[in-house]
Structures are given as structure tokens and as C-alpha cells.
Design a protein that fits this description.
single chain; 299 residues; Carbonic Anhydrase II; 25% helix; globular; binds 2-acetamido-2-deoxy-beta-D-glucopyranose; binds zinc ion; EC 4.2.1.1; zinc; signal
């Protein structure tokens, strides 16, 4: 399925919004599909071969030509944000929220919690996981990364994602959120399965957002439609996970990490690579000439 080149932020906002079902906002995008795509809204993509990240341009042109694409190599000299930031999400209690295997990630639809990032008020929409990490920190990658996706409270077109790296610990002590979700994961091993996530402690996350230094840059969704205008906050506080909890996530998620993108403002990596390939027209012409020669010989 081909999507119109670049999805406006308004379209992304309505994909994210709880209220609008979004049947009309972009022709073929539905909220269910948006959920299926982790951050993004395109269901047909994968992390394998012909539908994998180097070919995501077939779903949305922003993936192959956008100049502020995510993820990137975060370097510790980048601009940081911390003063006044606030991600004091309440622990998930007895009522619980859907924890769904979308086929692209596992995602907790924990909505409505307030956050303050870079002076802007946001509302949490959901959070999901990647193995291995999508961002790197001074070129180091981590076994996992969790993304907290937010929408602007006053301006729904504003999107912010907080990324937190997750690393294994020698003492095998998991962050309490990770151990709780690793248990629940056993109920959603197959795409499409949902379990109600109850009693999920989030103290590690609160610390990684409120008290930590966060590297910030203008980026995009890391899944098709790769829409830009997303403000990223990558925390330098790392959550711990035991080896067995990590393996539980890894076996359900498989590999769901987009390849590294160019630094903000630089040429798109796919577009850059494509210029070294013979143009499609050249190949079609060469084929025609070969066929013409073959015809002459047989005539
Ligand atoms: C939770 O998941 C169930 C089963 O997939 C679905 O029917 C329900 O609408 C979801 N609830 C919310 C609030 O998303
Ligand atoms: C951590 O867990 C792994 C796998 O379960 C195990 O092999 C290893 O011995 C554990 N390490 C410690 C310090 O308990
Ligand atoms: Zn993500």
C-alpha cells in the first residue's frame, strides 16, 4: 500500500488522538493500524528484507527522503534538557491498561498521564519496546530501548518521545517495570494478543525522565510513516534488566530496530545510498537494448 508522501502533523495527531477514528484523515490510515505500527501508522512494514527499513520509502516518502529522521547516534556533547522536566507517571494500578503484541512491538496503552518536557505540556499516549536499541549513545548500542510517546496537551500536533535505554545487569536485578512486564509478556507471545497490564511500577521511568539528563533533538517516528516534527528526549539514565527477562522480551519482539539515520539536517541515508545505484530508467533502457540485439541475432 502506498501512502501520500508526507503525512502532516495534523494527520499524525489525529492518528494518535483517542477521540478520532481517523477514517477520513488520510484515506487509508486507521487508528488500529496506528497502534499496529508502534509509533507509526503503516501496518505493512517489517524489519526483514523487502519490507524492511531500507525499503520503507515504499510506505511513505518521508522514510527515504526526510532530513530529520530517527533514530540517530546520540552523542554526549548534544544539547540536553532536564531542568523543570517532569514525567511523574503514576504506577499502573489494579484497573490496568491494555498491553498488546502489535506484531511490530509490545505496547502498553497507558494514556493521559501528564509530562512536562522542554517547557511544553504533554500527555502520555503509550509506551513500547525495541530490541536492540534504536538510538546509540556515543555509538554504543543497548539490548533494549523503551519509547514513551506523548502528544501536546494544548497543541495536539506536538509530539514528543522519550527514549530510555535498557541494559542487562551482572546481578540480574530487573527494573520493577521490566520484571512485571516480562511476566505479563507470557500472555501475549503472538501478534494480536492483549493482556491487561495491572500493577506496573514506574519508579525507574520517573527517575529517568524527571531527574535525568536527556539529550534532545528534532527527529521522526522510527516506523512508517516516519513523520517528522517529533521532539526526542533520550535519557542518559539506563534501566536494568535481568538476563532472563531480557531473553523473554527478545524472543517475543525478535528484531525491531530501525537502522541508524543521518544527523538532523543531513541527507537521508536511503536517498544518499540510492544515488550510487544505476537509475531505474537506465536499467530499463539496457534491458530493451539487450532484447533488441537478441532479436537481431535470431532474425
Ligand atoms: C483493549 O483490548 C481489547 C482487546 O483487544 C479491546 O477490545 C479494547 O477496545 C481495548 N481497550 C482499549 C481502551 O484500548
Ligand atoms: C544471571 O542470569 C543468567 C541467566 O538466567 C545466569 O546464567 C547467571 O548466572 C545469572 N547471574 C547471576 C549473578 O545471578
Ligand atoms: Zn519506538
Amino acid at each position: 500500500m502506498y501512502l501520500p508522501g508526507f503525512l502532516s502533523l495534523a494527520a499524525v495527531a489525529s492518528i494518535l488522538s483517542t477521540a478520532s477514528a481517523c477514517d477520513s484523515c488520510n484515506g487509508n490510515l486507521h487508528r488500529r493500524e496506528a497502534e499496529g505500527g508502534g509509533e507509526g501508522g503503516e501496518p505493512g512494514f517489517s524489519y526483514l528484507g523487502l519490507t524492511g527499513p531500507v525499503n520503507w520509502n515504499q510506505f511513505s516518502q518521508a522514510c527515504g527522503s526526510g532530513k530529520t529522521q530517527s533514530p540517530i547516534n546520540v552523542v554526549s556533547t548534544m544539547q540536553t534538557s532536564s531542568y523543570g522536566d517532569n514525567g511523574e507517571y503514576a504506577d499502573i494500578g489494579a484497573t490496568g491498561f491494555n498491553f498488546t503484541n502489535t506484531g511490530h512491538t509490545v505496547e502498553v496503552f497507558y494514556r493521559g498521564q501528564s509530562a512536562l518536557l522542554g517547557g511544553v505540556e504533554y500527555e502520555l499516549q503509550r509506551f513500547h519496546f525495541h530490541t536492540p536499541s534504536e538510538h546509540r549513545l556515543d555509538n554504543e548500542w543497548f539490548p533494549m530501548e523503551v519509547h514513551f510517546v506523548h502528544q501536546g496537551k494544548n497543541d495536539p500536533s506536538k509530539l514528543a518521545v522519550v527514549g530510555i535505554f535498557i541494559d542487562t545487569r551482572d546481578d540480574n536485578v530487573s527494573d520493577p517495570m521490566m520484571s512485571r512486564l516480562a511476566t505479563l509478556l507470557q500472555s501475549i507471545e503472538k501478534p494480536g494478543e492483549t493482556v491487561i497490564a495491572t500493577h506496573v511500577p514506574l519508579q525507574g521511568v520517573r527517575t529517568a525522565i524527571t531527574s535525568a539528563k536527556k539529550f534532545t533533538y528534532p527527529g521522526s517516528l522510527t516506523t512508517p510513516p516516519c513523520s517528522e516534527g517529533v521532539t526526542w528526549y533520550v535519557s542518559n539514565t539506563i534501566l536494568g534488566v535481568s538476563v532472563s527477562d531480557y531473553k523473554a522480551f527478545k524472543s517475543v519482539l525478535g528484531y525491531n530496530s530501525r537502522n541508524l539515520q543521518a544527523d538532523p539536517g543531513k541527507q537521508n541515508v536511503v536517498e544518499f545510498a540510492a544515488q550510487f545505484l544505476p537509475a531505474v530508467q537506465n536499467r530499463v533502457q539496457a534491458k530493451k537494448e539487450r532484447r533488441a540485439r537478441a532479436t537481431k541475432w535470431t532474425a
